[in-house]
Design brief:
Length: 193
């Protein structure tokens, strides 16, 4: 299976980086072809501009967007790995969605409503956050994050969300807890794809 991982964390030594490495190793061990798009290392420009929109309407997709759209189009599975910042996606990943999952590429308006152009792909989201998971669960944030990402992004364009892992209390746990998280990542990618 061709697997695209879109990764958004600026620090090499982060738990997110360990999650990325664990996911890549587990997928490759099963024979998957894995492409990682590390948005910070790429210096991805996240701001959707008027020029971008005008170019796409004219059928001339800017080169950086076209490059990412090719990776998305070629993938059978797409995983997003990112921290939750201010209850949402880091700006660089939000901008990736804004620019890459564009009208005409990821969806269009049809007679029956929105036509999902990425149907047939599987998706996984893996998040970390500093707030304890129990708090996010109690206030409805966990459910809210799943709705906005799994449904609001993936399902909107036809990607089937196979799972969404949210790891809380990051920065406040013992080593064994982080190891258990990485094992859960390994098991999830090994069984869902």
């Amino acid at each position: 299976m061709k697997h695209l991982i879109v990764y958004a964390h600026p620090h090499e030594g982060s738990l997110n980086n360990a999650i990325l490495n664990t996911a890549v190793e587990a997928l490759e061990a099963q024979g998957h072809e894995v492409v990682v798009r590390d948005l910070y290392k790429l210096g991805f420009q996240p701001v959707l501009t008027e020029a971008d929109t005008a170019s796409m309407r004219a059928g001339q997709t800017p080169e950086d967007i076209a490059t990412e759209q090719k990776y998305v189009a070629d993938a059978e599975a797409i995983t997003f790995i990112y921290p939750i910042w201010w209850t949402g996606l880091p700006a660089i990943l939000k901008g990736y969605v804004d620019r890459v999952f564009a009208y005409g590429f990821a969806y269009v308006a049809g007679e029956a409503g929105i036509e999902k152009l990425l149907t047939g792909k599987k998706g996984l989201i893996i998040n970390t956050h500093g707030t304890p998971s129990e708090v996010y669960d109690q206030i409805g944030m966990t459910a809210g994050l799943k709705v906005t990402s799994d449904i609001g992004i993936f399902d909107f364009v036809g990607i089937e969300a196979v799972d969404h892992l949210l790891f809380g209390s990051i920065g406040y746990l013992e080593t064994a807890a982080y190891e258990a998280m990485l094992e859960q990542v390994k098991q999830t990618v090994s069984t869902k794809f």
